[in-house]
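Fold this sequence, please.
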Amino acid sequence: MNKIAVVILNWNGTKLLQQFLPSVIEYSENATIYVADNASTDESITILKRDFPSVKIIQNKSNYGFAKGYNEALQFVEESYYALINSDIEVTKNWLKPIVELFDSEPKTAIIQPKILDFKKKSHFEYAGAAGGFIDKYGYPFCRGRIFDTLEEDQGQYNDEIEIFWATGACFFIRKEVYHELKGFDADFFAHQEEIDLCWRVFNLGHLAKYTRKSVVYHVGGATLDVANPRKTFLNFRNSLFMLVKNLPLNQLIQVLFIRMILDGIAAFKFLFQGKPKHFLAVGKAHFYFYLKFNTFFAKRKSNLKANYFKINSIVKTYFIKKQKTFLELF
């Protein structure tokens, strides 16, 4: 049996499968390739069976979103290492080899992310993940190569192999036993930031997440839910708050949530002044839902929560006030 399984979550993505699955098949010769389908209503299954007979199909009973979609599908995947990739990822030659070597040689490394560049502008990093993710004290994620909307050109500045705090779900490698020990992604997130939550829980167990430049992929980004969609705004703001409640040590939680209320309020009114009333309402809806479900997520807290992962206190302050736009300017 192959050591690594490449698992692509699909929902009504016929065109993306036709465009990107060939590169996955061509460059993943030592892997088993699966498509986990979230009850698509287009021709996805027909196309897979007809044009890609080597790919194994897992059919979920409903559109479970990203988190539960993977949780359901991975029950049927036996390989030791999971490569969870979006359907809009173009992979490159030997992209899996350095990942397997890292897992084999470093038992404490549970999660790995490759270098992620922009499919539409291949000289630059891509928004989702770039060269590895970190998080500030207030739960705002940022990446080497991408802070908020500033995307850096890849000039080799992140050609290294380092420990990171989170890896993007766009191309997410994880050990099977760790994934199932933590019961996978939190299905209540549905989509967005569930990978950061999982990385945070992995960190609390004492495992490591790493970035390697030796593996490179290209990501379209926004192919399933565009950044202009208010639904994305809602999920990002709501899930970020849920993540803090689940994972932040109690002695920090109240102060951090208070500051987040203020910062999220500022962000909401910024949307309004930009002529984006639906995004303004999405932030309000996210907070309403957060209050409604607070007790549910508070009950998910564990006892082994750590607080020594912050690279900086506030990425909002450094980016918008100090005007430090790239990761290398932060330190």
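Residues 230-330 form one domain. The CA atoms of residues 17 and 49 lie 12 Å apart.
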